[in-house]
Model the fold of this input.
Amino acid sequence: MKHRVSVSINGKTHEDEVEARLLLVHYLRDVVGLTGTHVGCDTSQCGACTVHVDGMAVKSCTMFAVQAQGREIKTIEGLAGSDGILHPIQQAFWDEHGLQCGYCTPGFIMAAAYLLEQNPRPTEDEIRKGLEGNLCRCTGYVNIVKAVQSAAATMSGSPKAAQPAGTPAGE
Ligand code: FES
Ligand code: FES
Done:
């Protein structure tokens, strides 16, 4: 049995018939075709699937598509401006080499966007805490933290954040 869902995704309404067991991440990728949201685990630990649901960062593998009924979703594809200009967090990941393979990057950027909405000038510790639900197997986290610091400085219009990124997350 299928259920009808109507969801706003990146400002556009999508209406689809979905099975009750379909996870939001699979709905976004396989039904809507937004493959920027990644699946990196089957244990809800990696954060590669992070999107915003009604403005909150959510791991989209932890919710069913039917639970998104009537909600507003933002994915990595909705972060850049309609003119194609990268969001400051995307630009900062580019500038600070905050990625290597890039698999974790959409999730980190969506988690960072939520973090900076809640706390526009986080300390290094607050950045590490805010991103602790996201895992990266490549970078060692240092440049990810630098990227978020740089984005925070750009978005708040102040000089580059002074906090040096030091130890890897989780230590
Ligand atoms: Fe969702 Fe890993 S795919 S947390
Ligand atoms: Fe490869 Fe993070 S850049 S997993």
Q: What stands out?
A: Residues 167-171 have pLDDT under 50 and may be disordered.
